[in-house]
Amino acid sequence: MSDPYLILGVGEEADDTTIETAYREGIKRFPPERDAQRFEALRQAYETLRSHRDRLGYELFDVSWPDAVDLLDRAAPVGEPGRPDPALFAALLRGDD
Amino acid sequence: MSKKSRRHASRAKSASTKLSPEALERRAQDDLAGGRYREAIEGFKQLLKLERRSAWRSALADAYAGRARHLTAKDMLKEALAIWENRADLGEDIPFHPDQAALLLRLGRVSSVLTLLAQGVEVPPEQRNRLHSLLGAAYLAGEDGVAERLPADDPVVLHGESARAALTAYCAGDDPALQTALAAIPFRSPYRDWVQILKALRRQPDDPEEAAGLLARVRDESAFCHLRQAAQLALLPEPDFLAAIRSTGTKSARFACALRGWTQARIALWEELNRLGPEPRPETLLRLMYRNRQTLGENWVRRRGLRFLVTGYPASRRWLKAAGAPPLSAEETLLVAAWSAESREDLGEEQKHWGSYARHLMHEHSSGDDKSQCKLRIALALRRCDQLGKILLHTTPSANPKDLDQLIAAQVEESLTWDPDDRDTYLRLIGYYRRGKRFKDVRRLLSKACGRWPEDMQVLEADLDTAIDTGAFKKAAGLARKILALDSINSGVRERLVQAHLAHARKQVVKGRPDLARKELAQAGEWARSTPARDQLDLTSGLITLIEDAKRGAPLLRDLVGRLGGGLAGHLTLALAGEALNLSLQQLFKRMEVEMPRVTGRDDLLATLARLRHHLDGGGRMTVELGSYLSKALARSPWMDLSKSETAAACDTLRRCGLHETRLIAAKAALKRWRGEPPFELHAFEAKYPRNPGDCSDKDIDRLGDALDRARKEGDTRTAMRIEQILADLNPFPFGPMHFASPPSDGPAPPVSGVEAVDLIIETLGLEAAMTALGLPPDVKRDLRNMARQQGDDAVAEALGSFLDMFGGFAGEGAIPPVPPHPPGGKPPKPKRGRRQSRSGGDKTQDDDFFDQLDLF
Questions:
Q1: Which end of chain B is more exposed for a tag (fewer CB within 10 A), N or C?
Q2: How large is the ipTM?
């Protein structure tokens, strides 16, 4: 995922406070010792969007393409972790994949 | 069997019939070990036709099992089953293989497995548990026949209900019931792996690491392996997960997606993306984004979609039309053009494009609604080139206002009218102008910055540095005091404050106002904390006393020098302090009534060198008087007492000071101890010929050449490169024997052209001597002289050389006309060291035309 808004889980209209809050919550949930990669992504996203000037700079100068995760997360965000239905269990228990 | 396979098999058969049984067996065993099961089956079948040996039958059974597993992996389940049946037909002594049971269960033929078990088929003890697990998995998958046909006390049946209850509870999200059901399954149960998997699935959302640990306990040969793999898939980081589900089975992927909370919409979009392949083209992605613009958001698709156009711009504009999107607006066109310029990494182009974009926005700004947003955009666009090239951070302003750095600086300055609140922009501009000593501009910006951020540390420090730069020491002191009031532990500023007072005090001494100087020193004393700073103040104070009253000052300074360790180092510190007050050394020592001291020992020598380094590092100069004083003082230093690294550092310090004679002494002393050591050979050479290395002897060049070889061998690249550079500058024969050039290539040297030969002769002898050596007639000489005046020696060399080339050139090395002897008693003509500009590099003018030059002859 490369879109810093999606990484922080905030909308594009988010202000400084919202972004900081999202960042703090994110790093609390994913501290570096638990998920270093996620923590680094959160930190970078926060640096990118920290102030209004930064956000405008990102909008003006970031030319990276949205990646597959960006598209998926934007169009159909991941919901709460689910539990597969028994039919899927049965298929995999039979070795039928 | 396909025609191809049949042909292959028959060929193998006909070939193997000619082999002896031993050779046939060896080959079949090799095929079996190498996983070539089909060939192994053929081989052992032939052997069994010769003799029903049990070892061969057993080997054939293994080959069948391998082949069947191979086919199962390729999803050729019916073919695999046929192979298993062939294996079973080999005889009753061949034990039943649980993989056959697994395949039967997968094909839904539970009753076949149970029948086999009921018939008392032989199963090796180590495989019995696996068979039970397989039956348990089948039972959980809904095969009720398992429970009906197995005895009631069979663990598969006994624990089956709890295992099923656990599944129901998990799927229903009833964790307490799940817990209870799992607790009812004992450790030694066919459902052991099932318990681990369900525990892992429950822990997965909250503690993926623990879940991964639980899943790792389920082994690859487990009956629940497929389930474990699907669960592990769900634990991967998102990008890895996307890559993995590309190649995994549909059901595993769906299982993992469900665990991760993927919705149907997400799965559908993923499948659409997946169809584009691993690296879709930008236009394809753009189309996909526009197809899904409802869910992705119209604005977002438009803005992020523009990024795809950078590749192949401006032709890429048509992709928008193909995607059903409106064409680029004027602003978008300028923006994409600027991005495109950035992708070419041409700062000049970028400056123009971002300038154009900003100007467009300025025009829009007059009529736009969202003014503050637009202003900030303009400012950011104007600062973009500096941000990319870091021009203002590192560049010194050039003289020409049309130079790129000046244009960029002007853009950045303009940006402040649109966004005056960016402190960093002020600081960057201030730093840039300070480097160019454009203090008027610096002060203009500083006054604005100080007005906006009166207590900002970086702004205050910039102000302080500028005050010191411009000699406004009083102001500097005031600023440093202000900074320290805000940040009392700022040791850097404390030091700068002391230095500012000290510099101001020195200024007053030079002006003849020792009273004011003392005042400054007293103020500096309030801030000085470090011992070196206090020593500096004491020395300056002592020197002022010496100037005022030599009788009072001399003993004071002698004491001070003693406190500084005495010796040469102490006197050097005093000498440097005296020089800062414009006191000549001779005057100073005369007034102090001291003799010029010598180095007292190893420690004194090292301290002196350290003091010199500190002086040079701080931007200090080495005056002629001090240099000559040090040359004498260091002449008899105990160089032999220093270690190799200390001597190398000493030579380097002496090089920086320009003390060549002393450096030569030090290097020679080092070479006595470390014979041929390349860095010291280099120091010795450079110190021996500090100004004109061209005067060096052949012996010295040879020594340097040997040092180069050794440096290369020892991997001392830095020394090797420095020696190479010296030798390259010395070598006037670019086509001569290249003793010292980079490692020689194989093969003969390239032939020397006439142009090169003439160029060399002119370069070595000068034009006049070269023309005489070539035996040119007087009228040609005259024309060539005119040519040399108008177009330079290169043009003459070119004309003469081309002429020689045309008529066969020099027949060989011996054919080059001999260099005339040196005038009696005179020195040989000195070769020119600098290489002239390449002839091929410049544009050819009409006068350079070869045929025009031929007219000369």
A1: N
A2: 0.89
